[in-house]
Amino acid sequence: MKLAEAETKMQKAVESTQQAFNTIRTGRASTSLLDKVVVDYYGAQTPLKSLANINTPDSTTITVQPYDRGSLNLIEKAISLSDIGLTPNNDGSTIRLNIPPLTSDRRKEFVKIAAKYAEEGKVSIRNIRRDVVDSIRKQEKNAEISEDEAKDLQDKIQKMTDKYINKVETLLAEKEKDITTV
Is 3-22+103-180's fold the same as 31-98's? Predict the structure, then answer.
């Protein structure tokens, strides 16, 4: 595995962690809360954002307006069954989701979830580093590269790993701030 390929994979791990953070509620309405919701639409698992227009008219409400009115009940059911913890209100043409203010206990719980997502991202980055280091050692053992080159490459991959782990930690700090700000 080459360093450029490893860097691309590490960047994807950071982006994946950011997407996971986006699904955590912060007390303000955000359309990204519904990113993971999939609807069983005529037998096909379809992302909600493909079936409806999702808006945030104010900081405590999300509205979901389906393109096909026949899918309204299916969307309502999918939101109810999802793990976002919101109760949909169906008025016949639009689904409204009211975002209640978070309690301090719930905020602490969300901070723990964010920390878990960050740790998963860091583990992913470390696994990429391990694969690269194994590859470098194998090349060194097979005399494809010198001992000095191997040491230099391992230093580079470690610096890259540290850089991307710091990015994940920065994202976590921002998310924790978002969650704990009332």
Answer: no
Identify the three-state secondary structure at position 46: strand
* Ramachandran sector of residue 159 (left: φ over 0; alpha: ψ -120 to 50; beta: rest): alpha
Query: Whole-model pTM?
Result: 0.73
Q: How far apart are CA 175 and CA 61, in angstroms?
A: 20
CATH ID of 3-22+103-180, from 2.40.240.10, 3.40.50.2300, 1.10.390.10, 1.10.132.20: 1.10.132.20
What is the model's pLDDT at position 38? 87
Domain boundaries, the chain: 3-22+103-180, 31-98
Q: Which fold has domain 31-98?
A: Gyrase A; domain 2 (3.30.1360)
Where does residue 128 fall: left (phi above 0), alpha (psi -120 to 50 degrees), or beta otherwise? alpha
Residue closest to 30 by CA, chosen among 57, 50, 53, 51 = 57
* Residues 48-66 pLDDT 10s: 888 888 888 888 888 989 8
Q: Cα-flanking dihedrals φ and ψ of residue 116, to 5°?
A: -65, -45
- Long-range interactions of 152-157: CB distance < 8 A, separation 24+: 153/3, 156/3, 157/3, 157/6, 157/129, 157/132, 157/133
